[in-house]
Amino acid sequence: MKHLLFFFAALLVSTAASPQSEAYARDIITVLASEKYEGRGYYKNGARKSAKYLRKTFKNSGLKPVGGDFFQPFNIAINCITGKPELALNGRPLVPGTEFLVSRNSPTIKGTFKVKTLNTAPADLDSLLAVTEGQDLSETFIATANTNRVLMEENVFDAAGVILLTKQLWWHVSNGHQVMDIPVIKAGITAAPEEIHTVTVAVRNKYHEAYTTENVAAMVRGTRYPEKYILLTAHYDHLGRMGKEVYFPGAHDNASGTAMIADLARYFAQNPAPVSLLFIAFSAEETGLEGSKYYAQNPLVPLDSTLFSLNLDIIGSGSTGITVVNGSVLPEYFSLLTAINEKNTYVKNIGKRGEAANSDHYFLYKNGVPAFFIYTTGEEYTEYHNVNDRAEGLPLTAYNGLFGLVRDFVLLLPIPR
């Protein structure tokens, strides 16, 4: 690999993306993170609207479908929070999205209930259960700062509902595959009264047992080895809507990565690589990596002919560099990446991690395809899984450098004969 690196390094122009490239990506981020695309979720078909937009984007760049279509459809089970969620504590209404969140596995409920507040160590679930043992809480909400994940998945108190008091209002959809028998609501500690006596709540849900969503895939054929493939991937889905009035833009996570693979697709459509490049915008990453898992089980090109898969997720910052998941377990590929960066100083630093099932590289790697997941690092932008992850605040600090690094890595990957 070292000989290949130095052979090809002399042929590369040491430049990152152009300002026009970053502007192109920012336009895509602005579109995908706009309210028109509904947070790219499943209530009001935001994910489907986004898939159609990306198909058009790939086509306009001159890419071709794999087989007869750009779409690879599959089904997921998902619960959606619809209508207008409402929450009032001691009679004072809280603002949805910024002061409270409704867990994605919550059922329809409406009414006013008394509240039992349990003050105990945040992770000590056994103490909470001991305090409530033998009590009839069927018409009572439990309010607690306990952070045990079980509270979002099981009705351990046999209560009417649970209010989780938290400093960080992060929303997730990975628990939306089924519906609990009670609602779970996250409320901001600063928005909640010191003593909660009553809760008035209104939640509506709609459960989809088999919602059809789609991966979006497009190809640039290789000039010398068209039957060898490199995958460039990012998930385009996000959290969607919590009712009619609140949506989660998802600019950093992951309109940013989606925009870069669209930008790379445009570049390689005009400058084809020796091997074929497959660009895949995955759906249903936020629900549990379901889109990439489906692809790994139903690949559009042979996995044994896939040389590498590079996944981009959360790349809107970068003041301190990037981190590479699987960098520790694929040292030769990581050495290639760092050698390219040392030559061109594309990003400030490249950190590495081991295996992690935290993005769409995972199931490809587990099915035998060498794979990296790259994300940017830096404190200049920290919005995550909330209503403030918007396009207008996204700095794209390391965008140009990361573009150049990924482009060169694709061109320098060794091609087995």
List the keywords.
alpha/beta; 2 domains; elongated; Glucose Oxidase, domain 1; 9 helices; Aminopeptidase; 417 residues; disordered N terminus
Question: Could you describe the 3D structure shown?
Answer:
The chain is α/β, with parallel strands linked by helices and 417 residues long. Helices cover 25% and strands 28% of the residues. It folds into 2 domains: 2-77 and 209-412, Zn peptidases (Aminopeptidase), CATH 3.40.630.10; 79-208, 3-Layer(bba) Sandwich (Glucose Oxidase, domain 1). It has 9 helices and 14 strands. Strands 1, 2, 3, 4, 5, 6, 7, 8, 9, 10, 11, 12, 13 and 14 form a 14-stranded mixed beta sheet that branches. Helix 2 crosses helix 5 (251-270) and helix 7 (331-344) packs across helix 9. Residues 1-11 have low confidence and may be disordered.
The CATH superfamily label of the largest domain reads Zn peptidases
CATH A-level architecture of the largest domain:
3-Layer(aba) Sandwich
What portion of the residues fall into strands of 2 or more residues? 25-35%
- Proportion in helices: 25-40%
Count helical runs.
9
Straight-line distance between termini: 13 Å
Global Rg: 23 Å
Task: Please give the largest β-sheet.
Answer: 14 strands, mixed
Helices and strands, in order, run as HHHEEEEHEEEEEHEHEEHEHEH
Query: Structural class of the helices, strands and pairings?
Result: alpha/beta
Number of E strands: 14
Mean pLDDT: 94
* Structural domain count: 2
CATH fold node name of the largest domain: Aminopeptidase
The first-level CATH class of the largest domain is given as: Alpha Beta
Low-confidence stretches: 1-11
